[in-house]
Write a structure and sequence with these properties.
It is a single chain. The protein contains 14 helices and four strands. It is mainly alpha-helical and 334 residues long. It has one domain. Strand 3 and strand 4 form a beta hairpin.
Length: 334
């Protein structure tokens, strides 16, 4: 079956399931209610984006398994590996869904995230990062006994970074689309393109304030990105550590800055505030310029690296420079 037919099937599937958006939100009392402090939308918005992402994940797995695409065996070569990604996506989705509904504590969430990731990487050892490969350093760094704890840490950091990055409409969905396109063009990684229809539907409804991704949605997106990149890193040697940094840098740098700032100010690093990158942009610009400029911060280093693929150092430095300059300028203007 050609990709165009798969996209048509997925489009029809999403057109159908999104009709139940309000019904699902009402049934499970899944709403993001404004508090006029951090949450400035005027009315309660369904936190159902993650549910539709999860339904697409299941449907995509079924479609791919039926068609036995060649690339499918690169990522999932046996039932154990299939169960591993199903386990990770399902339980991270359920944890996020529960958090969206009941707002569990940061410590409980961190423990459960760690436990789920630990079980997932034990099921599929190809998700475990055993060595670090850098472009600037000729030798491979073997992690040995640190491989499992560092793998858990890396995935945890990215999940938390993307969760904290989810602050304005379409921000995480836009980031996901950019990565899908970049990974497809640059590294010929095709698996994630099947999530384009649901992400486009999410963007449209998110823009109209009809739904938000919620923690359940960002959890799914973050584990899918992490899983695809780690699989390619381990099995195909597709990436170096610098390339992974460029791909994940903006959400990661913002999380690192926020954690450091909160700790230095004697605050709980997991307690939300209004010092995120998007808050700084929104204090100076309207929504559209803020959204566009944040996406541009991600696109510029990726575009440069796509054009100058032999130069990894410049986009690496460029990413850090763009982020730091943006924060300094915006913070001084407040």
């Amino acid at each position: 079956m050609e990709i165009s037919y798969i996209f048509l099937i997925l489009f029809i599937f999403n057109l159908f399931i999104f009709k139940f958006n309000n019904l699902v939100a009402k049934k499970f009392s899944l709403y993001d209610k404004p508090d006029y402090k951090r949450k400035i939308h005027k009315e309660k918005v369904p936190l159902t984006g993650g549910i539709f992402l999860f339904l697409n994940f299941i449907f995509i797995l079924i479609l791919l398994k039926i068609n036995y695409f060649d690339f499918f065996n690169i990522y999932i070569s046996n039932k154990r590996e299939l169960f591993a990604i199903f386990f990770l996506v399902t339980f991270l989705f359920l944890l996020g869904l529960y958090d969206d509904r009941y707002d569990i504590s940061a410590s409980t969430k961190l423990f459960l995230l760690t436990f789920i990731i630990f079980i997932g990487i034990l099921i599929d050892e190809n998700i475990i990062i055993n060595q670090l490969v850098f472009n600037f350093y000729p030798n491979v760094i073997n992690l040995s006994k640190l491989s499992i704890p560092l793998t858990i840490l890396f995935i945890l950091l990215f999940i938390n970074a993307l969760n904290m990055f989810d602050g304005i409409d379409m921000q995480v969905s836009g980031y996901f689309l950019i990565l899908i396109i970049f990974l497809l063009i640059k590294f010929n990684i095709t698996f994630l393109i099947y999530f384009i229809p649901v992400i486009l539907f999410n963007c449209a409804l998110n823009f109209k304030k009809k739904l938000f991704l919620g923690d359940s949605g960002t959890n799914i997106i973050s584990i899918l990105i992490a899983w695809v990149i780690i699989k390619n890193y381990n099995l195909n040697n597709s990436f170096t550590c610098e390339e992974i940094f460029i791909i994940m840098a903006i959400p990661g740098l913002d999380m690192f800055r926020l954690f450091c700032s909160r700790v230095l100010n004697g605050k709980n690093p997991f307690v939300a505030d209004k010092n995120h990158l998007h808050h700084y942009f929104l204090s100076r610009f309207d929504y559209f310029p803020s959204f566009f400029l944040i996406q541009l911060m991600i696109i510029i280093p990726l575009a440069y690296y796509f054009i100058k693929s032999t130069d990894i150092i410049t986009p690496f430095i460029m990413t850090i420079f763009i982020y730091l300059i943006s924060i300094i300028i915006l913070k001084n203007k407040n």
